[in-house]
Amino acid sequence: MRRSMKLLSAVVLNLFAFSNSVSAQETYLTTTGSQVALLDVFQDCDVCPEMIVLPLGTFHMGSSIEEAIAARLLFHSNNNIDVSAFEEATRQSFIDLGLDPDDPEDGLLSYYASTRYRRENDPQRWLNPFLNEVPEFRFTIDVPIAMGRNEVTREEWAVCVADGVCERGQTYVPPDEFISCDESSDCEPTPDARVAFRKQFQPPTFHPRGPMVGITYFEMEGYVSWLNDRVGADLYRIPTEAEWEYAARAGTNTRYAQGESLTLDQANFTVLTREFLDGEFVWNRDIRSPTEPLPVDELDAANPWGMRHMSGNVSEFTSMCAEGLHRSFTSSSEYLHANSSDPSCEHSLKGGMYSGYAELARPARRVGIPSDHWSPSTGFRVVRDLEPDLRPSE
To answer: Which domain holds residue 108?
Structure first.
């Protein structure tokens, strides 16, 4: 992976020890020569995303099997699905793999690491997709970074479009012509046209401060390359899932950075339940539940480090492949050194979305999505590698 080893060689030993508290000893330089410290908000240029300087430190990444099962149980409960049937099916799935159903975690990890693993037998694929959050493990962020305060917005993307790099193709394609255009070699719908097609019965607002959606991972990489050209340095990239989850947790150990539960005042997600009434199922939707992403400045959606909408609003691509369980790396320098662009892999998607349940918005949640996937509920934010300010203090 580019930059990682070069960057690590520049890091002074013992830069920071983080244990759920923030010190202000480390400082870094922006491309304009300005000095920034931990949790400062800065921009490298007037059209660049706002970035927040994150502390180095360690955190618990992922979740346990118990938490993954609890998330699925809550999902079933909200939909009035018989949880006893799910619990029995879960136990049987572990038994079928030769695991102890009362203590399956170590056995499941061994199964994924063994030659016995078969994708078609993977319980997290057909029974409980939350199981790909497993295991919970200690992870160290040892490469200094700043993370985008917000999801990349439409107005930020528009500058890349004006420079002739992003959003190539038609400005508008009528919904009834979209599919033929999408399949044509001389007609490429823009992200806006994709979203309009998908949302033709519920037209989107397209607010300038709304997150940019309807784009593929490849198009996100194009924006990042443009951003690096704009600042004249190879600094920006799409975050790894470990960096993303670290920023989302913001030093907390709860299910969400806001606590053990999440409210619609704190995040943009959907509250939808199903009940059996007068012989039939009836869906009940909270009237405050959204129908589209919100502008990044709306809601009290910041976590303790000031990161907005890390839970809900839109799901966010990370740079890591997400097949099976977490990789065995324990530090961000290992992740970066091993990371490579694999067009065929399913990248880890994090953060939930406006049209999804709260369980999907937990920082631990991950799901693999192909690089060419686009959706009205999928966007991204950027990460920036930081060079320590090694100037002698006055």
So the answer is: 65-135
